[in-house]
Amino acid sequence: MEAIFLVGLLCVLFNNGIEVDASHSEFQNFQSHNLTVPETQPYRTSYHFQPPKNWLNDPNGPMLYKGFYHLFYQYNPNGALFDAGMVWAHSVSHDLINWIHLNHALYPTEPFDIKSCWSGSVTILPGNKPAILYTGINANDTQVQNLAMPKNLSDPLLKEWIKFSQNPVITPPTGVAKDDFRDPTTAWVDAEGKWNVIVGSLINDRGMAILYQSEDFVNWRMYKDPLHSKEKTGMWECPDFFPVSINSTNGVDTSVMNPSVKHVMKASFNSHDYYIIGTYVPGVQKYIPDTDFTSTNTDLRYDYGKFYASKTFFDSIKNRRILWGWVNESDSSEDDVRKGWSGLQSFPRQIWLDRSGSQLVQWPVEEINKLHDKQVSIQNKKLDGGSVLEIPGITASQADAEIVFELPELEEAELLKSTPVDPQQMCTDANASVRGRLGPFGLLALATEDLTEQTAIFFRIFRHENTYIVLMCSDQSRSSIKENVDKTTYGAFVNIDPQNEKISLRSLVS
């Protein structure tokens, strides 16, 4: 491999974010309380969102209400594994960094949700009135959609919620299995004043977003056709549907429909979150994707690692759309039970449409800068092939590392003989230990001194016809010496022209 120049590197350590249990602290004073990682739980992260204990999965109904960010999420109050009796846990924050855990918002208490309160969304109705639509598992193990409203709208924390007495408001239609109908998304209002919401489903191996409409948010009618569907995708879980601006990085409200936006359709299936970009035609309720799902590893994903059941919301104060996603464990179930918890939420990310209009761009929310502490910087460092450069002065396991690479001799890149190819398989076959002409180069995170344990985030450059292709990989094959953990290697092609752009990498390590 030829020499590569490291033209800028910034490593910033983190102070711990603040996490407070509502039962032990007054909310007005929570910023003076600091919850550090306890010695009995050494593998908890320091700045990702986690409850103090037990199982966590899907983010539900994130929103901004009266100056507070709200995050609901799937939670098992009885243990560290997924089980029956799931609830909607509830936490709030001023800044997406420091959180207070409130009492749970929804428990399984009624015939329509007696076996679990599963995922859903929050929609802000006229008059700034939040409304929850969520999936309940009823006494017959059927998935039905239910409505809940705040008990006290003057309470900015929305600590109590009341379930609608005539639930369920939506039941599975003919042809849909009772356990293939869930996760209503944030609703949007159209030009006719009708509310629209989609529910994830599956019919004959065709995943779909079934569309429902309502004038009052209570009485819902199924539209004659799904908003979108695709064969061979499996059950669509946690669908999300929202507009993105064509000409700006700012986010827009979910109900915006005009020529200045395109629409994103996201569906969670096959253990990943896939999305497509296209045009929404509200008059005939059609969604026309620019490029549809193909059920291959070339489909666009929000994230090419552990990331699932994601949900976005519009932040009206800062005019941005924010993305949350569930990160499940690599450990075994036995490990989860021993440590007493499982799962976390990804760091919140701002999301927008890239300049080409063909894919989304993500970046950690700006509030992360509140956690920055010590800075270490290296400039204009030459990296010879096969070398490893240790960054001095980093003594903690939490860091925000930003690296920029300059590639002086692109013509040395290997030839990629045919396309399409599976990028994840390429990363698996040629992991970080396999030398190439231009790559691997990147970052070794959480590496031991002898490098027996390391997680490599790296790039490789290939030539194809008259252009260059950038492959990005996350190699977890040596992330642990334990045998019974998930060590999947992930990979994707990055939309970068290395002839005209430097390759940069930002990694949040915790």
Number of strands: 35
Spatial arrangement of strands, main beta sheet:
2-6-5-4-3-23
The first-to-last residue Cα distance is 30 Å
How would you state the average pLDDT, rounded? 90
Uncertain spans: 23-37
Global shape: globular
What gyration radius follows from the Cα positions, in whole Å?
A: 23 Å
Regarding quaternary structure, what we see is single chain
Biggest pleated-sheet summary? 6 strands, mixed
Strand content: 35-45%
Which class of secondary structure composition applies to the elements? mainly beta
Short description:
This protein is an all-beta fold. The chain is built from two helices and 35 strands. The strands form seven sheets. The chain has a six-stranded mixed β-sheet with strand order 2-6-5-4-3-23. Strands 11, 12, 13, 14, 15 and 16 form a six-stranded antiparallel β-sheet that branches.
